[in-house]
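To: structure subgroup
Subject: Chain for Friday's discussion

All,

I'm putting the inputs and outputs inline so they're searchable in the archive.
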Amino acid sequence: MKNFNRFQLFAEESEEPVTNTEPEKKYTDEDVDRLISEKFAKWEKKRQEEEARKVKEAQEVEKLKNLSESEKTNKRLEEMEAQLSSYREKEALTAMEREARKLFQDAELTVPDELVRLCTSAKAEETKTHVDQIIALVRAEVKKAAQASVAKGTPKTGNKPTITKEQILAVKNNIERQRLMAENWGMFQKGN
Protein backbone atom coordinates (compact mmCIF):
# COMPACT_ATOMS: atom_id res chain seq x y z
CA MET A 1 0.00 0.00 0.00
CA LYS A 2 2.97 2.20 0.51
CA ASN A 3 3.78 2.19 -3.22
CA PHE A 4 0.27 3.30 -4.05
CA ASN A 5 0.58 6.39 -1.88
CA ARG A 6 3.80 7.38 -3.62
CA PHE A 7 2.09 7.38 -7.01
CA GLN A 8 -0.75 9.41 -5.67
CA LEU A 9 1.60 12.00 -4.25
CA PHE A 10 3.39 12.18 -7.56
CA ALA A 11 0.12 12.83 -9.38
CA GLU A 12 -0.93 15.53 -6.95
CA GLU A 13 2.33 17.47 -7.25
CA SER A 14 2.04 17.93 -11.02
CA GLU A 15 1.91 21.53 -12.10
CA GLU A 16 0.95 20.94 -15.74
CA PRO A 17 -2.12 22.83 -16.85
CA VAL A 18 -5.18 20.65 -17.20
CA THR A 19 -6.41 20.59 -20.81
CA ASN A 20 -10.01 20.24 -21.76
CA THR A 21 -10.44 16.73 -23.15
CA GLU A 22 -13.96 17.46 -24.36
CA PRO A 23 -14.09 17.42 -28.20
CA GLU A 24 -15.27 20.49 -30.07
CA LYS A 25 -18.92 20.54 -30.97
CA LYS A 26 -19.52 20.10 -34.66
CA TYR A 27 -23.24 20.82 -34.56
CA THR A 28 -25.22 23.24 -32.47
CA ASP A 29 -28.27 22.11 -30.59
CA GLU A 30 -30.45 23.85 -33.19
CA ASP A 31 -28.69 21.94 -36.01
CA VAL A 32 -29.27 18.63 -34.26
CA ASP A 33 -32.91 19.50 -33.58
CA ARG A 34 -33.41 20.49 -37.23
CA LEU A 35 -31.78 17.29 -38.53
CA ILE A 36 -33.86 15.12 -36.23
CA SER A 37 -37.03 16.97 -37.24
CA GLU A 38 -36.25 16.51 -40.96
CA LYS A 39 -35.52 12.80 -40.54
CA PHE A 40 -38.66 12.33 -38.49
CA ALA A 41 -40.76 14.16 -41.10
CA LYS A 42 -39.38 11.95 -43.89
CA TRP A 43 -39.99 8.83 -41.84
CA GLU A 44 -43.53 9.95 -40.97
CA LYS A 45 -44.34 10.73 -44.63
CA LYS A 46 -43.00 7.35 -45.76
CA ARG A 47 -44.96 5.59 -43.04
CA GLN A 48 -48.18 7.40 -44.03
CA GLU A 49 -47.68 6.55 -47.72
CA GLU A 50 -47.09 2.89 -46.86
CA GLU A 51 -50.15 2.90 -44.65
CA ALA A 52 -52.27 4.48 -47.43
CA ARG A 53 -51.03 1.85 -49.89
CA LYS A 54 -51.91 -0.94 -47.48
CA VAL A 55 -55.37 0.53 -46.91
CA LYS A 56 -55.95 0.77 -50.66
CA GLU A 57 -54.83 -2.83 -51.16
CA ALA A 58 -57.07 -3.96 -48.32
CA GLN A 59 -60.02 -2.13 -49.87
CA GLU A 60 -59.34 -3.80 -53.22
CA VAL A 61 -59.13 -7.22 -51.56
CA GLU A 62 -62.35 -6.52 -49.65
CA LYS A 63 -64.03 -5.41 -52.86
CA LEU A 64 -62.95 -8.64 -54.56
CA LYS A 65 -64.22 -10.69 -51.61
CA ASN A 66 -67.62 -9.03 -51.88
CA LEU A 67 -67.89 -9.77 -55.60
CA SER A 68 -69.63 -12.90 -56.64
CA GLU A 69 -67.82 -15.52 -58.67
CA SER A 70 -69.43 -14.34 -61.90
CA GLU A 71 -68.46 -10.74 -61.19
CA LYS A 72 -64.88 -11.83 -60.50
CA THR A 73 -64.84 -13.75 -63.76
CA ASN A 74 -66.28 -10.75 -65.63
CA LYS A 75 -63.68 -8.44 -64.13
CA ARG A 76 -60.85 -10.78 -65.14
CA LEU A 77 -62.38 -11.13 -68.60
CA GLU A 78 -62.49 -7.33 -69.01
CA GLU A 79 -58.84 -7.06 -67.97
CA MET A 80 -57.83 -9.77 -70.43
CA GLU A 81 -59.85 -8.16 -73.25
CA ALA A 82 -58.14 -4.83 -72.61
CA GLN A 83 -54.75 -6.54 -72.73
CA LEU A 84 -55.69 -8.41 -75.93
CA SER A 85 -56.85 -5.14 -77.51
CA SER A 86 -53.52 -3.54 -76.65
CA TYR A 87 -51.62 -6.44 -78.23
CA ARG A 88 -53.78 -6.25 -81.36
CA GLU A 89 -53.09 -2.51 -81.73
CA LYS A 90 -49.35 -3.14 -81.44
CA GLU A 91 -49.59 -5.94 -84.03
CA ALA A 92 -51.51 -3.67 -86.41
CA LEU A 93 -48.89 -0.92 -86.06
CA THR A 94 -46.09 -3.42 -86.67
CA ALA A 95 -47.85 -4.65 -89.81
CA MET A 96 -48.30 -1.06 -91.00
CA GLU A 97 -44.59 -0.37 -90.38
CA ARG A 98 -43.70 -3.38 -92.54
CA GLU A 99 -46.04 -2.13 -95.27
CA ALA A 100 -44.61 1.40 -95.10
CA ARG A 101 -41.05 0.04 -95.32
CA LYS A 102 -42.10 -2.02 -98.39
CA LEU A 103 -43.60 1.07 -100.04
CA PHE A 104 -40.37 3.00 -99.46
CA GLN A 105 -38.33 0.11 -100.90
CA ASP A 106 -40.60 -0.04 -103.96
CA ALA A 107 -39.88 3.67 -104.46
CA GLU A 108 -36.15 2.89 -104.14
CA LEU A 109 -35.79 4.99 -101.00
CA THR A 110 -33.92 3.97 -97.90
CA VAL A 111 -35.34 5.66 -94.82
CA PRO A 112 -34.49 5.34 -91.12
CA ASP A 113 -36.78 3.41 -88.77
CA GLU A 114 -37.76 6.64 -86.99
CA LEU A 115 -39.25 8.04 -90.20
CA VAL A 116 -41.11 4.78 -90.84
CA ARG A 117 -42.59 4.97 -87.32
CA LEU A 118 -43.57 8.62 -87.80
CA CYS A 119 -45.52 7.99 -90.97
CA THR A 120 -47.20 4.79 -89.69
CA SER A 121 -50.78 4.83 -88.54
CA ALA A 122 -53.18 2.09 -87.44
CA LYS A 123 -55.15 2.65 -90.65
CA ALA A 124 -53.70 1.45 -93.94
CA GLU A 125 -55.05 4.42 -95.93
CA GLU A 126 -53.42 6.97 -93.63
CA THR A 127 -50.10 5.11 -93.69
CA LYS A 128 -50.12 4.95 -97.51
CA THR A 129 -50.99 8.65 -97.74
CA HIS A 130 -48.15 9.61 -95.39
CA VAL A 131 -45.63 7.42 -97.25
CA ASP A 132 -46.72 8.80 -100.63
CA GLN A 133 -46.36 12.37 -99.34
CA ILE A 134 -42.84 11.69 -98.07
CA ILE A 135 -41.83 10.00 -101.33
CA ALA A 136 -43.17 12.95 -103.36
CA LEU A 137 -41.38 15.42 -101.09
CA VAL A 138 -38.05 13.58 -101.34
CA ARG A 139 -38.30 13.24 -105.13
CA ALA A 140 -39.11 16.95 -105.50
CA GLU A 141 -36.11 17.92 -103.36
CA VAL A 142 -33.80 15.59 -105.31
CA LYS A 143 -35.07 17.06 -108.60
CA LYS A 144 -34.47 20.61 -107.31
CA ALA A 145 -30.95 19.73 -106.22
CA ALA A 146 -30.19 18.08 -109.56
CA GLN A 147 -31.48 21.10 -111.49
CA ALA A 148 -29.44 23.44 -109.32
CA SER A 149 -26.36 21.34 -109.95
CA VAL A 150 -26.91 21.34 -113.72
CA ALA A 151 -27.58 25.08 -113.71
CA LYS A 152 -24.22 25.73 -112.11
CA GLY A 153 -22.46 23.87 -114.90
CA THR A 154 -18.90 22.74 -114.56
CA PRO A 155 -17.13 24.26 -111.63
CA LYS A 156 -14.83 27.12 -112.48
CA THR A 157 -11.43 27.57 -110.90
CA GLY A 158 -12.14 31.21 -110.17
CA ASN A 159 -10.48 34.31 -111.65
CA LYS A 160 -7.02 32.73 -111.76
CA PRO A 161 -5.43 32.68 -115.16
CA THR A 162 -4.42 29.24 -116.38
CA ILE A 163 -0.81 28.44 -115.70
CA THR A 164 1.53 26.18 -117.62
CA LYS A 165 3.85 23.49 -116.38
CA GLU A 166 6.89 25.57 -117.35
CA GLN A 167 5.60 28.58 -115.39
CA ILE A 168 5.12 26.44 -112.31
CA LEU A 169 8.62 24.99 -112.58
CA ALA A 170 10.03 28.52 -113.02
CA VAL A 171 8.70 29.67 -109.62
CA LYS A 172 11.69 30.30 -107.33
CA ASN A 173 9.92 29.92 -103.95
CA ASN A 174 9.86 26.20 -103.06
CA ILE A 175 6.69 26.39 -100.96
CA GLU A 176 4.78 28.31 -103.62
CA ARG A 177 6.01 25.96 -106.37
CA GLN A 178 4.91 22.91 -104.36
CA ARG A 179 1.49 24.45 -103.72
CA LEU A 180 1.04 25.14 -107.45
CA MET A 181 2.19 21.63 -108.32
CA ALA A 182 -0.35 20.18 -105.87
CA GLU A 183 -3.16 22.32 -107.31
CA ASN A 184 -2.25 21.33 -110.88
CA TRP A 185 -1.16 17.76 -110.25
CA GLY A 186 -2.64 16.58 -113.54
CA MET A 187 0.12 18.42 -115.45
CA PHE A 188 2.80 16.37 -113.71
CA GLN A 189 1.28 12.95 -114.33
CA LYS A 190 2.99 10.64 -116.82
CA GLY A 191 1.93 11.33 -120.35
CA ASN A 192 1.45 15.10 -119.87
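Points worth raising on Friday:
Residues 29-66 form the longest helix (38 residues).
The CA atoms of residues 69 and 172 lie 104 Å apart.

D.
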